[in-house]
């Protein structure tokens, strides 16, 4: 820990290894929030479409990942799980404990990342796809040499694209099953609600708009009103009314159990993948 050099909270250079959609979403959120200007962010990619996407909000584009490492204080690895080991090992000679390393790669544990990098100033983050619209749910776990200040810097960074929690890494498989895979469950629910509206006679476009706005509004109520979901449900379900009739059908079909099973199944699969 004696060699740990503090990262300046507002003047560091941020580098992305991997210039895909998630990296773009994070970078856009950081710039839009005013946390860092695009000139302090860099990445590398050869495809013109990816270079243009990042350059459109001021990010510095380089030709090689090695250049990104050499020109960054905080480095976020945002590559596919099957290549992250080779990428980190290739860059290892350039990595130092003066740099804070971050991984958003699903299923790859801190102990492996730290071993490949040759040091343990690493932070693992599990965001989800609503990062693209600034509404991510991100969970952070600190590696052995990452400091409290490091955690605060990354908390602010990912706070630019949504809400952030800190948790022990042992919970990450369950987190993957809930918030990582969870958006897909909600997309299915929105589609099903819209289909129900169409079946009841609504035009498709109106049904989909109502379904998506209803889910958005309900989620905002849970997040902001301070009531338990069961109380909010009770507030809508008047005696002998339409809502309780719908809820009765959901309960007969095992709606809550199905969602619970989906989270548990995805968590189990995440655990299997991380051990393979």
From TrEMBL:
Which residues participate in NADP(+) binding? 17-22
Q: Which domain of life is it from?
A: Eukaryota
Q: What PROSITE patterns does UniProt report for this protein, alphabetically? A: P5CR (PS00521)
Domain Pyrroline-5-carboxylate reductase dimerisation spans what residues?
169-273
What are the GO MF terms of this UniProt record? pyrroline-5-carboxylate reductase activity
Question: Which Gene Ontology biological process is one annotated for this entry?
Answer: L-proline biosynthetic process
Q: Which residues bind NADPH?
A: 65
- The enzyme class is oxidoreductase
Matching InterPro entries: 6-PGluconate_DH-like_C_sf, NAD(P)-bd_dom_sf, P5C_Rdtase_cat_N, P5CR-like_CS, P5CR_dimer, Pyrroline-COOH_reductase
Q: Which reaction does it catalyse?
A: L-proline + NADP(+) = (S)-1-pyrroline-5-carboxylate + NADPH + 2 H(+); L-proline + NAD(+) = (S)-1-pyrroline-5-carboxylate + NADH + 2 H(+)
What EC number(s) has UniProt assigned to this enzyme? 1.5.1.2
Can you name a GO cellular component term? Answer: cytoplasm
Q: Which UniProt keywords apply?
A: Amino-acid biosynthesis, Cytoplasm, NADP, Oxidoreductase, Proline biosynthesis
Residue stretches making up the Pyrroline-5-carboxylate reductase catalytic N-terminal domain: 13-107
Q: Where in the cell is it found?
A: Cytoplasm
Task: Look up the record and name the pathway of this protein.
Answer: Amino-acid biosynthesis; L-proline biosynthesis; L-proline from L-glutamate 5-semialdehyde: step 1/1
| Record family assignment | Belongs to the pyrroline-5-carboxylate reductase family.
Please give the name of this protein. Pyrroline-5-carboxylate reductase
Write down the species. Dorcoceras hygrometricum
Q: What lineage is this protein's organism placed in?
A: Eukaryota, Viridiplantae, Streptophyta, Embryophyta, Tracheophyta
